[in-house]
Predict the structure of Cytochrome C oxidase Cbb3.
Amino acid sequence: MPAWAGGPAGSVSDVATDYVQHCAVCHGADRLGGMGPALLPESLERLKPDAMRDLLRNGRAATQMPGFAGQLPEATLDRLAAWLRTAPAVAPHWEAADIRASRVVHHAPGSLPDRPVFQADPSNLFLVVESGSHHLSVLDGDAQAPIHRFQTRFALHGGPKFSRDGRYVFVASRDGWVSKYDLWNLALVAEVRVGLNTRNVAVSDDGRWVMAGNTLPRTLVLLRADDLSLARVYPVAGADGRASRVSAVYDAAPRQSFIAALRDIPAVWEIPYATLEPRVIALDDVLDDFFFDQPYRHILGASRAGAGQVIDLDAGRKVADLALTGMPHLGSGITWRRGGREVMASPNLRQGALSVIDMQTWQTVATIPTNGPGFFLRSHEATPYAWTDAMMSPRRDTLQVIDKQTLAVVGSVTPSPGRTAAHVEFTRDGRYALVSLMEPDGAIVVYDAATLREVKRLPMDRPVGKYNVFNKTTRSSGTSH
Ligand code: DHE
């Protein structure tokens, strides 16, 4: 018997009635979301059972979500928690018509002035995703001071993607909303819901298209970048018709195409801007995590089991195996020149080690021991160091600083002992490193990238990623694109 069906007082209809009475007004009668986020098994995957218990009882600070402790019996709350993790009786769907109907245009293309409304250098702005109360903060990178703060949709994930001139930025929420902001006018331009569970977005280098990758439904969604109107829905399926979730979609600017990584079928899709028709590259294994070399000729991929391979996108086939151990987080990889050769390094989600790979031979040339499994690695062309975290370990409060030539750990910073610090992004000139203190009463902590001295801290609500316009739009080899 499922956990939510506890006999006569806990039948499906009781739980469903409880949902309708207490939750539906914010989360939608169909559980697809409304003022509150969607409550589908896919949306709740990342919420641990204890966190769910706490949320239902005590609500979520700084949001409209109330606590139901004392209002509903404990057993009812437990049944609701279990029921929410089961699929709805009617399978949720999100078709082209739903996408079109969801779109809101706040400012029509061309209606806002073509110059910044602030004095700061628009190419040295940072965007900070504050996941605590779902905000995007805009920082002036020269003064390292906030200039604006937007409320966002629920749970942004993946890097914000900038137009080439840095004026527009596109973000996706895990709930399927794609939002476009005009950074020069500090304005939300348009929003559209492309799916019920979305991985990320990519923006074409020519500025015309936005592609979103979904896990629910199993689609890629192409939008016109100017007003987020729907151009095309691609059902994602293999030759045998089996549908696949999208792991992520990327813009491969040097190839003038989008590349989509698929989670359930061993293939990669390349969608050139010129044709917008998918080219399917068959693989031996499903790849879940990806790194592209700077020309976007090769993909370094890893399966969740850790096996790695190099795919030549021109040849459309595997050209080498990668000797990887643990669970490398290739998506957070960076490259640099070392002794006349290009090397790539990525953190590891399971091991306290960074693998350094020669980008010509694909051999692992070094393994750098670190404080523990980490998530992000960052550098900049103008700094000799790479910064990594150990946020998946007890040493999650400390970032280590690695010399890119000797590969030795040469320093560390601990912004706040005992509290999680991760994700670094440099200012445009590489002089300062901004670190996220990822706590509800957290901060962006600014370090001098040469002396490792703290310069200042800006209070933020659980800041996760931060993104510098110049480094992103010039596709710096020290950061993600
Ligand atoms: Fe992420 C980017 C996948 C969990 C914070 N994450 C990405 C990207 C992928 C990915 C494929 C690249 C997309 C892009 O840049 O557009 N992330 C995954 C997962 O599969 C995983 C492990 C589980 C999941 O359910 O999604 C996962 N990610 C997390 C987190 O728990 C993090 C730490 C907190 C959060 O907000 O969810 C997290 N992911 C991030 C960040 C980026 C990201 C900050 C952007 C990195 C960048 O600097 O560009």
